[in-house]
Amino acid sequence: MGRELLCLPVGCVLAVLGASVLPLFATVAAVPVVGRWLRTRERVRARDRRATGVIELCGTVAGELRAGRQPGEALLSVPSGDLGERWGLVSAAARFGGDVPEALRRAARQPGAEGLTGVAACWQVAVDEGAGLAAGLDRVASALRAEREQREVLRARLAGPKVTVAVLAVLPAFGLVMGAALGTEPLHQLLHTPVGLGCLLGGCLLEWAGFVWLRRSMRAALAPGKAVGR
Questions:
Q1: Does 199 reside within a domain?
Q2: Is residue 230 a part of any domain in this protein?
């Protein structure tokens, strides 16, 4: 529990203004929904940080290899802050002579760290066939940068629909404010009459359906490997 609890004071204010307990019950029910949304947003940010961390890892290790360091030493020089909890497995494998490719594949199971699968493949080829690891990591980094740029383009294109949905979502609140300013007592009509309760329920359902549609559309558009038309 955290910022989602801020819904409760809002519900208390609406309950007092509308002389009804319905807003309070509604905000109590909204607390877990808002909490889930906040946690999802934080997971998306963590995934993006891991994806950026993998790209930086490729560049750092390639640079260290070209400077003459051994692969294990180069890998240990990478900051682990954005690479997730499983990066400790990779560090241990590199430090104590373990199976580095397998550790990289395990670390790649974290959301956003999928690019480590390519790093593992390059490492395996370098160990088995003596191929240049630095050149392989450069190619992996280039591919990951291109994929990140595609996602950024998609997010920019989806910014307009997101703003539109947000504006439409808050319009009813402006309507309530305008109605109160005109002295029509909109909260009383919504919370104490059958027609008002029906409109309130229908509006909430439509709001929920709109947010679900937007979320699914964005998730499908931003799925890994989604192509972007130029």
A1: yes
A2: no
For the stretch 20-64, pLDDT in tens is 888 888 888 888 888 888 888 898 899 999 999 999 999 999 999
Burial bucket for residue 202 (CB in 10 Å: 0-12, 13-18, 19+): exposed
> Would you call 146 exposed, middle or buried from its count of C-beta atoms within 10 A (0-12, 13-18, 19+)?
exposed
**What residue numbers bound the domain in which 208 lies?**
3-221
Question: Does some domain include residue 86?
Answer: yes
Tell me if the pTM is above 0.85.
Answer: no
CB hemisphere CA count around 17 (13 angstroms): 15
The C-alpha atoms of residue 205 and residue 141 are separated, in whole angstroms, by 44
CA distance 212 to 206: 10
Distance CA 221, CA 19 (A): 44
